[in-house]
Amino acid sequence: MFTLLHDYLPLLLEGFAHTLLASAIALVASFLWGSLVGIWQSAGKGLLKAFATIYVEIFRNIPLLVIVMFFYVVLPLFSVKLSGFTSGVIALSLYTSSFIADIIATGIKAIPRGQFEAGLSQGFTARQCMAYLIFPQAFRQSLPALGNQVINLVKNSSILAMVAGLDLMYYGDLVALETFDTFASYSLVAGFYLLLTVPLTLFIQKLEKNYSL
């Protein structure tokens, strides 16, 4: 295993960097979009509420692999060509955002309606009440569930390997094919993922302790 690590460390580090980048982009995109959809789902009206509900139900109930393949295989049929990395990040963002939206919507619904009405009585607009009063409380209340989604997102980033996304799992597969040492190859890949997920889990637990309601 140590010989394999010495020989293929640059390759695995490149995959590790791509996994970090894909996870970071997808995390920001899915949180921003998922939060907006969650607000529409819980507090929106008419078409916005309907769109948010349908969006969450669709992307939450379709396997991530199918979504990735749609962007990587289907869109090129319509002259829209995306790299494996881009396809994976978009799919990962859409998939994760549906779960985040549901979490945020649940958190918002848990906040007493009286707080929103109190904000309105103090001269806040509906948007200001949501931005400054309701959403921050919903976010703190939803931290445990959101933390789980962050960890899941990092692990789900391995889906990029299915579309040549140049991530850690993709290069792990290459090393395994070249060396035929599957045990060492995938043990190293697992170790790199642990380097990401364990500190992230500890950080999220600290956030929960400090900021949860």
Describe what this molecule looks like in 3D.
This protein has about 210 residues and is mainly α. It has one domain: Orthogonal Bundle (MetI-like fold), CATH 1.10.3720.10. About 85% of the residues lie in helices and about 0% in strands. It is built from nine helices and no strands. Helix 3 crosses helix 4. The N and C termini lie far apart (about 45 Å). The model has no long low-confidence stretch (mean pLDDT about 90).
> What is the name of the CATH topology?
MetI-like fold
Alpha-beta classification: mainly alpha
How many β strands by DSSP? Answer: 0
The first-to-last residue Cα distance is 46 Å
> CATH top level?
Mainly Alpha
What's the CATH superfamily, by name? MetI-like
Mean pLDDT: 91
Principal-axes shape call: elongated
In DSSP terms (H or I, runs of 4 or more residues), the helix count works out at: 9
- Which residues form runs of ≥5 with pLDDT under 50? none
The name of the CATH architecture is Orthogonal Bundle
Q: What is the N-to-C order of secondary-structure elements (H for helix, E for strand)?
A: HHHHHHHHH
User: Share of helix among residues?
Assistant: over 70%
Please tell me the total number of domains.
Answer: 1
- Assess the beta-strand content as a share of residues: under 5%
Major sheet: size, sense and barrel closure?
A: none
What's the gyration radius in Å?
A: 20 Å
Transmembrane segments: 20-40, 61-79, 85-105, 150-171, 183-204
InterPro entries: AA_ABC_transptr_permease_3TM (IPR010065), ArtM/GltK/GlnP/TcyL/YhdX-like (IPR043429), MetI-like (IPR000515), MetI-like_sf (IPR035906)
GO molecular function, one term: transmembrane transporter activity
Keywords: Cell membrane, Membrane, Transmembrane, Transmembrane helix, Transport
